[in-house]
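Worked Example 4.2. Consider the chain below.
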Amino acid sequence: MYLPPAFREDDATKMVAFMRAHSFATLVSVVNGAPFATHLPLTVEERGEALVVTGHVAKPNPHWQGFDHAESLAIFGGPHAYISPSLYEKVESVPTWNYIAVHAYGAPIIYTYANAPEKVQGMLEAMMQSYEPSYLAQWETLTDKYRAGMMQGIVAFEMPITRLEGKYKLSQNRSMTDQAAVAEHLQQAADPTAAAIGTAMQSRIEQEQK
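Applying the procedure from the previous section yields the following structure tokens:
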């Protein structure tokens, strides 16, 4: 993605934490020569020095058929907010939008219940542990036939991450006076996503002032 230096984030620990906090992602691959996107929850795992995202798609979804052909992109989107030029010191200013996003690139590896049942089961258990640990006990009470049927209806994947891009567009290109004014305004907003951007801006300002 377009990454002006002022907005670029290179802290991998910070980006991984963001991915986990905003794990309902958009996965984009090339299928039959055209971009294809699926919106889905992902788990983010650190395996030694490697970072891997895991998930699954429905078997009828053609998305998985493009996994072998090119690199895929998982987009983790976070809070965002409209920024009015009325908040700036200078009258000659234009509106913009502040937001946070992390892009993760990699080549997904496919697993199905037919060829790797333990991988599919492991992926599902990791997802349950991440989103609703209490459901694990209920899952174990379901009949083998039902669980097998559910797992046969999906295609699981692991995507080792080869590249991370983080963009924290938080008015860093403005004066500290403008940044403080925008942060204060957003933190008072009724919209929780706008308020979240205000909080992120305030945290960054305080970090800069240390």
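The longest strand covers residues 154-169. The chain is about 35% helix and 35% strand. Compare this with Example 4.1 before moving on.
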